Structure formats: structure tokens, C-alpha cells
Amino acid sequence: MAFLRNAWYCAGWTEELSDKPIGRTFLGEPVVMYRRSDGAAVAVGGRCPHRFAPLAMGKVVGDCIECPYHGLRFDPSGACSHNPHGEGTIPRAASVPAYRLAERDGILWIWMGDTALADPQGIPDMQAVAERAGWHTIRGCLRVGAHYELLTDNLMDLSHVPFLHPFLSNGGPLPPEFEEIRSLKQEGDTVYSMHMTKHLPMTPLFTMLWGDHPPEFGDLRANMRWEAPANLLLDVGMTPPGQPAAAGPSLPIAHLLTPETENSTHYFWVQARDRKADDLQLDPVLHAGITDVFKNEDERMIVACADMMGTNDLFSLRPVLLPGDGPAIRARRLLGARIERELAGG
């Protein structure tokens, strides 16, 4: 299956980048990232064209990355700028691809396609999870052994939460006043999966964040925004019944999915909170909770499903569809159309 190349993908966090090179694989291609002497972010192909050594094992010299094997240097444009052998003649084919690498909201964004089309205005808005007054953020990254669209499917349909994530749900009997409201919305190529549960027994997570005297019941919102290829932002929070969002804790979380290969995905996440922002002892608790939920619950199930499918072509298996599948199917079809247009030169 082809990847969408002319799009912004998360490549990591801005604080990771320095004059020490970082090597990652995106869309099946090795990439090395580093900072130039002026602090600008650089991303070029991570495989030396001579003996195919990983450039991430090398070092940054000035604004160039030096191969650790034979010392060829490549500048931010990908061109070989230095050959320490013989008379120093640079072979005509000595170059690596260059990629556009941008920074916004504490996130590194990489464009794996035509750099002339890389418009920073198209970077997804993730200000909801950026560091700002009154809020605190935590972040992490996992490698998941499955195709990235399976992760999107999982995130776009949260009806699995009561069955797969006991810490995120109450798990007890529901009161007669309980009401669940779901809706699907599309604006251009952006898909929204809206999910509201009214008069839900307070969950353990929001009880912990509430502090003193949490209400017995609350309204839980979980509204997911998807933008191609796989950048998702979840607006999640709980309030006393009928109250506005500001009346209770908010925990927005960005799920940024970048294909590593056809069968593996970089899952970058960043979560913000507006309650107990100064309580840094909560950071490891929440970080461990998110990691545990995804690693031992979501990922375990997603990988098991991938193994049972035996293919990344979901529609070829003619899946049975349930009401909660609507947003994920819409996202899949929009992404597929984008990829088809790109392959056709459009």
C-alpha cells in the first residue's frame, strides 16, 4: 500500500533535536535529523550512498552530517559537500534526499514528499496540547507493530473503551439518567468523531484530577479530530452534569501517527491538563497510565487484529460495520482518495 507523501507527519519533539544526530525511519525511508549551527532543524536521508552506513551513527560538522564509515559529508540540501579521499572529487551520485522539517507547538513536523509543496500553514493546529500558562503537558512515543491506519481506526471509535480500558471507565452499573450521544462531522478533509456521555459515574482518572469533593456523576466528552494522514487531537474532559467545559478537568491529548514501515508505526502522543498543573508528581502516574493503557491494552489488541487480518487492505476483508465505525471509515476513504490523487500526479 502506498503512503501519502505530500503531508505533514510528526517526527518527534523539538527538545530532542540538537547537534547529536537522531535516526528514524519514516514511510519506509531512513532519515537523520539534527540542528545546524544556527539552530535550524535539518532532515536528510539517513543512508550514506557509498556503503550505506547509517548517517545517524555519524556526527554533525558545522552544518553537515558526516558519515561514520568513510567521512563523506552531506549538507542540509542533501548534497555531498566533502570527500576526504583522493583529490577530494565528489562523485556525481553522492547525495541523499532532503526533507522539509518544521517546528510548531513543541512538535517536529516532517514533509516526506515534494519540498516545494511543503506549506507550513498546513501543519495541524496542536495548540491545545502546547505548553501555556495554567496548563502542563507530558509526552511520549511508542513503536507499534501494525499498520498506522489500524491505530487510526482504534482512536476514531472510542466505543471499545468500556471493554478494553477499565481505568478510563467506571465499570459499574449505569444510572437511569445515563445518555450517550455520538455524531460524525466533516469539514473539508477534516473528520470529527463527537462522543458525549451524560450522567456517567465519575471515572477513576477524573476523580484523581478533580481533587476534593468530586461529583458522583458527570458529563464526559471525548471529541476526536482527524486530519490526513494520521494526526488526531482528542478533546476530552468531564464536568458536573449540564455544566460547561471550564467547570471540570480537561485532558486534551494529541495522537500523532507516523508510519515507520507498512507494518510498524511511530505513535507520538502529548497530553495537556488544566487541573493540578503544578503537581509534577502526577506526571509519572499519568505517563505510566497512558503507556500502560496503550501498550498493554490497545496495542496488544491492534497487533492481534493485524495478525488475524493477514493484510493491510481492510476493505478486501469486507468487514462487518457497526455504528461507531463511521468516522474511521470516512477518514480511510478521504486518505485513500488523497493517495490516489497524489499517485496520479494531482
Fold topology:
Layout: E1 8-13, E2 22-26, E3 29-35, E4 41-45, E5 59-61, E6 64-66, E7 73-74, E8 80-82, E9 98-104, E10 107-111, E11 136-144, H1 148-156, H2 161-164, E12 179-187, E13 190-201, H3 204-210, E14 217-227, E15 231-239, E16 253-261, E17 264-273, H4 282-309, H5 326-343
Antiparallel strand pairs: 1-10, 2-3, 3-4, 4-9, 5-6, 6-7, 7-8, 9-10, 11-17, 12-13, 13-14, 14-15, 15-16, 16-17
Q: What is the alpha-carbon Rg in Å? A: 22 Å
Q: Give me the strand/helix succession.
A: EEEEEEEEEEEHHEEHEEEEHH
Largest sheet: 7 strands, antiparallel
Helicity range of the residues?
10-25%
Put simply, the count of helices is 5
Mean of pLDDT: 94
CATH class of the largest domain: Alpha Beta
Molecular shape: globular
Measured distance between first and last alpha carbons: 18 Å
Q: What is the CATH architecture assignment of the largest domain?
A: Alpha-Beta Complex
Indicate the low-confidence ranges by residue numbers. Answer: none
From the 3D structure, determine the CATH topology of the largest domain.
Naphthalene 1,2-dioxygenase Alpha Subunit, Chain A, domain 1
The proportion of residues in beta strands is 25-35%
Write down the domain tally. Answer: 2
Strand order in the largest sheet: 11-17-16-15-14-13-12
| CATH homologous superfamily assignment of the largest domain | Naphthalene 1,2-dioxygenase Alpha Subunit, Chain A, domain 1
Helix-strand category:
alpha+beta
